[in-house]
Amino acid sequence: MAKDKVSYVCRACGAASPTWSGKCFGCGEWNTLEEQVVASLTVGSTKAAGTQLEPEQVVSAVKHDATRMKTTLHDVDVVLGGGIVPGSVVLMAGEPGIGKSTLLLQIANAVAAKNDVLYVSGEESVHQVSLRAERLAAKNTQLGLAASGTVEDIVATIMQGTHQLVIVDSIQTIASKSLTSSAGSVSQITSCTHMLMHAAKQSDTALLIVGHVTKEGSIAGPKILEHIVDVVLQLEGDRYGGFKVLRSIKNRFGSTNEVAILEMQEAGLMPVSNPSEALLAERQVTDGSVVLATMEGSRPVLVEVQALVNRTSYGYPKRAASGIDLNRLNLLVAMLERRTKLKLADQDIYVNIVGGIRINEPASDLALCMAIGSAAKGLQLKQNAVVFGEVGLSGEVRHVPYVERRIAEAKKLGFEAAVGPRTKGKKDSFLYPVKDVRTALNSFLEG
Q1: H/E/C letters for each residue in 335-379?
Q2: Considering the domain boundaries, does residue 46 fall inside one?
Q3: Which pTM value belongs to this model?
Q4: Together in a domain, 29 and 145
Q5: Residues 133, 249 within the same domain
Q6: Least buried of 205, 312, 429, 443, by fewest C-beta within 10 Å?
Q7: Domains contained in the chain, number
Q8: What is the pLDDT of residues 183-235, one digit of tens each?
């Protein structure tokens, strides 16, 4: 065996460097490089021996979806693609205190009605987990609790094959005895995830892993963590209130277009049957208030967009946004200043999406523009209408997908019209098409 080499690996992004430096050249973080020993093996002329693979017929290898383990939360099953697949590895990430452990304990209790489930906590003691289980009324006798931070112990338990579902909370607190680095480092996360994944695949045990997030909101650890698992779930929302959104970033067993909208109650995170009605329940019709017909995955949701425009007291106007990208807001404000008669250069502009929902789709552009125009001029929408549409830099209103679903949701909640882009094919009298943002402001705002 040749002399061992030393490498320095960043615990934030996983980038390797032959020498130590205070700043990682990959992600720019400071004091994140950790020393690792890389063993070099000299094989010489010895040929590596292998075992011949025995392929299995695809017809006999395919398992029907009926074997999936269901939860009592229908929307969560939809996000998972129909339930939890035996032998799959699911990674769930989210902000601290968002409700990850609560949701997983609810899932564990529901699956334990028909299967043996083990909940392994590396952060809390069994007593702490049992207190949360008591609060959530998780009392199924097939649900077991354990506390361990050693991956070898968890792997040995999984390989017994006595549990159909194992939950590990969380991967950043699990460490292997064979590695000298601390729990949560890049090498520990990678090695522990590989060991857990192979144990789950060999024993046909479903595995749910909790992952932490960084201060930027991305999943902590190396990117390979997301590659090697089968499903990546992200729990988003305001930790202090409002709705929580569970979305699938990656799913080998279903679509990534589905989302579950949940609300924290005494019994845990519960699906919201009609989020649009709940979000608009306390709405007051005033200037600067516009209802946006947005899409959460393939689900239409109506949310209120509020804008406040006020003359600035300083030399540089302020722009603030809650629930949308601030860069997108600045872009739309610059477009309104150039393409319409609105004078916003000396105005402070504040935009808020009610209910803690975060909007990422471009279809919110027209609603944002009309809310800003309404607040700037003190005008309201002429009709009880919803608004949607993407706006270009020339002020044109562009086509967006799922127009029919947005209109159907607006009709269900009693709205009288919809303002949006022109559509091809069959015309709907409910939709008032506009070609540019200037036409929309002149035609649908009144004092």
Answers
A1: HHHHHCCCCCCCEEEEEEECCCCCCCCHHHHHHHHHHHHHHHHCC
A2: no
A3: 0.78
A4: no
A5: yes
A6: 429
A7: 3
A8: 888 888 989 999 999 999 999 999 999 999 887 778 887 888 899 999 999 99
